[in-house]
Amino acid sequence: MQVAAAAAPHLLCPHLTAAATPRGLLLSDSEAPNFKASTMVGCICFHDFLGDSWGILFSHPWDFTPVCTTELGRAAKLAPEFAKRNVKLIALSVDSVEDHLAWSKDISAYNGNEPTEKLPFPIIDDKNWDLAILLGVLDPAEKDEKGVPVTARVLSVFGPDKKLELSILYPATTGRNCDEILRVVISLQLTEEKRVATPVGWKDGDSVMVLPTIPEEEAKKLFPKGVFTKELPSGKKYLCYTPQL
Ligand code: BEZ
């Protein structure tokens, strides 16, 4: 893998450096790094891969591991839902393209499909930890048999402007909930398109919340289905709902 942007100093060092702690990207980071990488579908340049789409990059410790296999299986099943919402998926794992190709047969079999069934997203070859280090996602608490920190389960959602919209960090031993990731993508897209927020446990189709920064008169015009405000002891009118548009 080559890094298109100017190489960060820690890229020049062995992978066990302070820079290799799982910082991940920060929401305030301006843009997704524009790295080049080998994948199961050839060499990609991350920004070109994303194009004008939303993008989800998710990292994995290794190929042929139990938790990762179940995660990639579920991500593959949900891939059409992400595609419908203009979201491209791409995984990263600290193994080679050859391993990824062999592992993807296991993932297809886990999903009850023919081993020849192709995964609906590429997996990046990160056998030299280059990208894990660039992204700062090595988990010092979880080490392989040689004592080397493994890649944490970091998931980053980028908007069409390539800005980081959401980041979730799980330890290597806890699998993600891919359905939750689809839910948050739907919420992020609603916020971007309709200027609404989504409350606790929100599901697609439930009422949404009017952003507290929108003045009452403007909210009435923006949300023709009505704005319903919950009375509160403080008398403040900040719990405002509107049916999903
Ligand atoms: C797994 O995917 O099953 C896994 C990977 C690294 C550490 C522990 C579990």
Topology:
Layout: E1 2-3, E2 35-39, E3 42-45, H1 46-50, E4 54-60, H2 66-84, E5 87-93, H3 97-110, E6 123-125, H4 130-135, E7 138-143, E8 149-151, E9 153-158, E10 164-170, H5 178-194, E11 196-197, E12 208-210, H6 216-222, E13 228-229, E14 240-242
Parallel strand pairs: 4-5, 5-6
Antiparallel strand pairs: 1-2, 2-3, 4-9, 7-8, 9-10, 11-12, 12-14, 13-14
Helix pairs in contact: 2-3, 2-5
The site of benzoic acid has 9 residues, from helix 2.
Concise summary:
It contains 6 helices and 14 strands. With 245 residues, the chain is an alpha+beta fold.
Structure characterization notes:
This protein has 245 residues and is of the alpha+beta class. Strand 4 (54-60), helix 2 (66-84) and strand 5 (87-93) form a beta-alpha-beta unit. The N and C termini lie far apart (43 Å). The chain has helices spanning 46-50, 66-84, 97-110, 130-135, 178-194, 216-222, and strands at residues 2-3, 35-39, 42-45, 54-60, 87-93, 123-125, 138-143, 149-151, 153-158, 164-170, 196-197, 208-210, 228-229, 240-242. The strands form 4 sheets. The protein has a 5-stranded mixed beta sheet, with helices on one face. The protein has a 4-stranded antiparallel beta sheet with strand order 11-12-14-13. A 3-stranded antiparallel beta sheet has the order 1-2-3. The protein is built from 6 helices and 14 strands. Helix 2 (66-84) crosses helix 3 (97-110). It folds into 2 domains: 9-176, Glutaredoxin (3-Layer(aba) Sandwich), CATH 3.40.30; 194-242, Antioxidant, Horf6, Chain A, domain2 (Antioxidant, Horf6, Chain A, domain 2, 2-Layer Sandwich). The chain is elongated, with a radius of gyration of 20 Å. The model is unreliable at 1-21 (pLDDT under 50). Benzoic acid binds at residues 61, 65-68, 142, 150, 172-173. The site of benzoic acid (BEZ) has 9 residues, from helix 2.
